[in-house]
Design brief:
It contains three helices and ten strands; from the N terminus they run αβαββββββββαβ. The chain is α+β, with helices and mostly antiparallel strands.
Amino acid sequence: MAIHKLILDDIFDESVFTLIAIHCTIEDYRLAYLLNKFLKINLERKRCDLDFNHGKSTYSIYKWEDQKQLLTWNLVSNICKINDFTKANSGSLFETAHSVTKTFNLLPELKNVNYLLKIDDEFNVKKEKHIINTILSIPQIATAYTVDQSQLKSKDNLIFY
């Protein structure tokens, strides 16, 4: 009797999306507002943040589903900073608390990127350049560019529910 094997890599294609890295120092809600205004989209904050490491690091996420063009836009923070308080007893009568700020990245390969804009569809080069040029026209944004997905090792972190 013959044994039949199914290779899942051949069955499921990787999802096609455009990933734009955004460098800026403004808060996430302000960036979402500016992107909505300049790109004429409607990003809204999701009720639950992205949760990695069982609550140790959470990332804010904004989402918009474009019903006309059948696109899903996601704006997610790439940086999560957590203040960790540690108590140290140095042999004295009183304990001293030290605050240490730990930084986690959604995509560790892109440590300097503040936000990621993921669009679940592959645009042609002309449309993609138009989106990036529009983002670069926002005065609060330092730079924005397309990320090569083949170079990402932690691509699984970009699977949003």
